[in-house]
Amino acid sequence: MYNRNSFMSELQQLWSxxxxxxxxxxxxYRFDVWIKTLDPLCIKDGRxxxxxxxxxxxxxxxxxxxxxxxxxxxxxxxxxxEVDVVAPDxxxxxMNAAAPEESKNQEKEQAKEQYNTPNMxxxxxxxxxxxxxxxxxxxxxAAKAVADDPGVKHNPLxxxxxxxxxxxxxxxxxxxxxxxxxxELKVLYVTSENFxxxxxxxxxxxxxxxxxxxxxxxDVLMIDDxxxxxxxxxxxxxxxxxxxxxxxxxxxxxxxxxxxxxDISPLEERLRSRFEWGLLADVQPPDLITRMAILQKKAYLxxxxxxxxxxxxxxxxxxxxxxxxxxxxxxxxxxxGLEQKALTKELALEVLKDYIKDNTEAITxxxxxxxxxxxxxxxTRADVLGKKKNKEIVEPRMMSIYFICEIxxxxxTAIGQIFGGRDHTTIxxxxxxxxxxxxxxxxxxxxxxxxxxxxxxx
Length: 458
Ligand code: ADP
Ligand code: MG
Fold this sequence. Notes:
The protein is of the alpha/beta class. Helix content is 59%, strand content 9%. It is globular, with a radius of gyration of 25 Å.
């Protein structure tokens, strides 16, 4: 099995060849949204394994793009027979499916050379390229302290926060920094799935001593996305011992997770308290000013010449995931280049409208109604779909109609059907009424924008 660490460049190269082929076959915005967001994980038994950013995108890719990816893969590398796409929450199960003996041995050989490979750390992810704002200044300071003096302060450093907020970036920044300032130190970055796989292999070969020994030689161990060890109760004891060995020898441990230790469940108590012993650093979604600064930095690093009003538009459209925000920036730049047009705010709006439309493939009327109901605690879906006319119910009903019109672009009569056979003029009235309130009432505008964000997040 080629794994992410030791064969990063080979795998990345293969993936970029495949991407190039696919890119010529589908519209650019589809490519950007569905294909470019895939992350090549490994080649396992002749299968290229790709990770989709969300369950929804996995479903879309699985349904529409597998044959295309497969033939592109075969073209790029004759040894690749199949292409699998997995969602983040399926990864663990997928990777734990038994590997044939031969690839296991190969994997073991490669694992030995895992640390100190020159391409282990992404050179784009440094402290310099990390923009510091209120939401992440604590994380930044903690990570910097650890990188300056590994094993001395804050051990372990436990980083947690939502996806796309810079956790992996910070781990690589620590790695890059140590490689430059303390090149004698052995630093290993692993994803928790690779760590778990290796551990499983060592257990099945009754060789956990070897596993521990290898890790004990390290000076700094960084494990990304540790949340995947929940449920792995049988492995947690061994993981605890590995950590203990490192900790007792004052070796630095850095861990990232999408949630704090107290929310990783099930998790052995002593492992949880071990995680909590050092420093817990959380990272929050950045505010608008920080998002702008991040976009400016990304634009600068990528040598994009983008006006501030365009950056502001992008920053205002995405509040909770920097990776997605970056994707939007690339997309508008790409489009302007393709069309040979000046990148104005109008053009960006047009491009991003497509983006939003594409995201709606997975959004349904049901999902919209459910989301709206969440904003009105006393109102149920049956109320919204029913006949009652009291004020408390009419507003969420009109909201639901408004969003369904706006997002799903269904015929008005079809929407009327959903709402118990209401006439299309009623639907139109509801839609326009909310649209008008959005213009005139700031509190409604805010509510609509919150709900819209929730609808798109699903
Ligand atoms: P996570 O691991 O938390 O899901 P990543 O570290 O992969 O997120 O970050 C996603 C993208 O956002 C990366 O391209 C990263 O460089 C960028 N990013 C996140 N936070 C910042 C920041 N503060 N400054 C610059 N780039 C950032
Ligand atoms: Mg990450």
